[in-house]
Amino acid sequence: MRRTSILFGLIAVLLLLPAGASGAGNACQQMRERLVYGGGAASGLFVVDAESGKPVCARAARTPRILASNTKLFTTSTALSRFGPEYRIVTKLLTDGRLDSAGVLHGSLYLQGGGDPALGVPSFYNRYGGGVGTNLLLLGSQLRAAGVHAVTGRLYADDSVFDRLRGVADSGYATSPYIGPLSGLSFDSGYRGSISQGFASDPATLAAAKLDAALRSAGIGIRTEVARAVTPPGAEVLAGVRSPTMSQLVGATDVYSNNFFAEMLAKLLGAHFGGAGTTQAGTDVIERFARSQGSGIQAVDGSGLTRGNRASPAQVVGLLEAMGGAPVGDEFIQDLALAGHEGTVADRMHGTAAYGRCRTKTGTLTAVSALSGYCFNRDGKTMIFSILMNSVSDLSLAHDEQDQIAALVASY
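-> structure tokens emitted (412 positions)
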């Protein structure tokens, strides 16, 4: 049975009082006490009224803390703002050959990855990705519709939009047990098949092999051997599939705390806005964006798996405050998990004022737990908060106290 102090018994009673009965100052004191009780002394908190920008509660608000998956707030806000909510990533099928009147393509095919984290087959992403996916196999029917019946060359996989480092700093840039192998031409989130089958050693050639088999099933004659190669200059586009919108990708990343999607988005930012499809280039873009919003982060990766990702509660709130007023603000907020209903907070905050009224992002590492987001109160007030706990000894207790803090924020 969990030990409960007399002090927190009194706090529990106070929480049952009508809003304002204990005073705003007392509510803030309760937040601070719950913060330390659930997260230890190395924890910080910041809460502001979004309309006035006035801070209403703080504890160590400007001390940088390990962010864990609250890092994704910085990655996804950057991706949504830089690409726009309707942007889609294109995976192309190109050729260096020519098509004759008999439907024979004299040349080779190049499957050129665009860095789409959702590329795969419906049987995978409908089961494991909540239906958010890009169907690679549609390229086969498009090629057949273009009049191609046979290919004299072979199918090459082009993953050159990204580097070939499969992981991030947390795993020494090798494939991490927590995310699939990163690739400019990913497939089924890096898995060989179902999740139980483990990760692929080379996602790009796996994607090409799957497409090659689909082409032959569609009656298109092509050699069975696939390889990697960069698409030659001047190659002609024969077919293409587009990803879900960036807003949908961001929603899948934040609601379910999808590490693979977050790291792919970081590299995509690097490829388009940082000069290279690398994690380093991507995190540089993320850091610049945070500074442009009056916030800041020390970003080491896109997902938060590496403990070097750090920001203060005030910086997290500063980012959320800026995004709330941004042109893509509505999409960004709606792409966060609704308390008690979705993703990583589906089973949390039930029976509290935060239930159905707060959109949040969680974060978890060893001894680290975080919860940040927006709460929309019954009186129409919007509150923004960040809870960063860095000395957690009991994760369940940390979640309980975070949920009660969120309830206080939602009742403010």
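The CA atoms of residues 43 and 403 lie 15 Å apart.
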